[in-house]
Amino acid sequence: MVLTAPYVPETIVVHLGYPTAAAQNVTVSFLDYIKNVASSEIYPTWPEAALRANIYAQVSFTLNRIYTEWYRSQGYDFDITNTTQFDHAFVYERSIFDTISRIVDELFTTYIRRIGQVAPFPAPYCDGRQTRCDGMEQWGTVYLAEQGYDSFQILQYYYGEDIELVPNTPVLSYTPSYPGTPLDYGDFNNNVLIIQFQLNRIAGNYPAIPKISPANGDFNLITVAAVRRFQNIFGMASTGIVDEATWYQISYIYTVVKRLSELESEGVEYASFTQILPTDIGLGYSGVGIDLLQYFLSVIALFNSSFPQVQITGVFDEVTEEAVKELQSNNGLPATGRVDKVTWDLIYDQFRGISFILPALLSRVPIEPYDGVVLRQGSTGERVELLQRYLNGIAEVYTDIPTVEVLGIFGPQTYNSVLQFQRLFGLTADGVVGSSTWNALLDVYESTLRRQNPDVPQYPGYPLLEGMSD
């Protein structure tokens, strides 16, 4: 969700379990939710500056979940969970501490954000005793408060000086970001601009999606092409229309790629990774390999909603152990939570499958057999778009074939490209795509893809599990 102002929802839906668990959803007021979280995580006897710093972080994290529609964009019918691996501690119908209740009444409409940004800051934190993290440490806030830090100085100590507090956020009823009707070719409004903005950001990670320039709110042909390519990549019907499912899938992927970018900026450089093989490590271990291990697990978690969100701390903490157990259990290994050579190889393979091989696979066009429809000048639609993508892929190796604009319209440009392909490969040069030309295109495209990516092995680098599709 972008280009809109954050707000405090009147109510919030809390899922009492893991995101994928068949657990109860409860609807509570946002105010009561923050009071419950604060009473479940911190102590009313702490210095007031520490209490305020923690409540600011809890409010900000929760509003980030609302603003990005993090769970709803994945198809869930709730806003947040009560599992600390993903979100906050929340104990349904627990009693609330009076001191905390008073402070929350004052602060619940104030959140943290980075200076120059709109979205509420997702304010990572941990308890600071049993677990350490690259974020605010709750017990550390007590020490800082006792040293004379006020609540904002505590936040700056952990999150940096480029943050600010935004007070008096309006309280509104929850309104889904989806505009209510599909966006289609010819529409011109702010919702189209939101989609264009998000698709252009996603295209930075998925370059097969064409960049929309200018992004001006006009649902033009290049926007249709970008939406179709997005839908194709993520297994949706390639209609070029932004219906509700497409809207939320774009929103979800937009948030994911931003989080992946944030992970890559935390000091562990993607290009510098090497496959190191620690011996046998587990809870409490620290050392040069732990940052790398936690980075790998963090990237895997971005593509698996049931996976714990591991922080890059350099210390093998309980969340890291739980993530390792989850991965071992899902792949038929004893769930020891320790990383031996077999587990390390598995983690590395899954990371490599996502970060190295997946982009190469996503950039390819699906191989579709001939459907019996002859394509010629004047033809339009998804099959023409597919034809144009085959031609462009082949043109990367066979430079005598001119590239074409992927618009799904068979015009003179596409005619000339088909004609040159037919001449180059000994087919009847008539500029018409029947079964012979289509099948030849598939054969040449497949061989071209192998030539462009000679190092990509047949094994995708990660296990194929029930329910997966690609």
Descriptive account of the structure:
The protein has 470 residues and is mainly alpha-helical. The protein has four domains: 8-169, no CATH class; 190-263, Muramoyl-pentapeptide Carboxypeptidase, domain 1, CATH 1.10.101; 266-362, Muramoyl-pentapeptide Carboxypeptidase, domain 1 (Orthogonal Bundle); 382-452, Muramoyl-pentapeptide Carboxypeptidase, domain 1, CATH 1.10.101. Helix content is 43%, strand content 6%. It has helices at residues 30-41, 48-68, 98-107, 138-146, 151-159, 190-203, 221-233, 244-264, 288-302, 318-330, 341-362, 382-395, 412-424, 435-452, and strands at residues 8-9, 11-15, 25-29, 80-81, 111-114, 125-126, 136-137, 163-166, 171-172. The longest helix is centred in the last third of the chain and has 22 residues, at 341-362.
Number of strands: 9
Average per-residue pLDDT, rounded, comes to 82
Helix content: 40-55%
Query: How many separate structural domains?
Result: 4
Name the overall outline.
elongated
Proportion of residues in β-strands: 5-15%
Q: In whole angstroms, how far apart are the ends?
A: 26 Å
Could you list the spans in which at least 5 consecutive residues all have pLDDT below 50? 265-277, 356-363, 451-462
Number of helical regions: 14
Sketch the topology as an H/E string, one letter per element.
EEEHHEHEEEHHEEHHHHHHHHH
Largest beta sheet: strand ordering: 3-2-4
Structural class: mainly alpha
- Alpha-carbon Rg, integer: 26 Å
Largest sheet: number of strands, sense, barrel closure:
3 strands, mixed
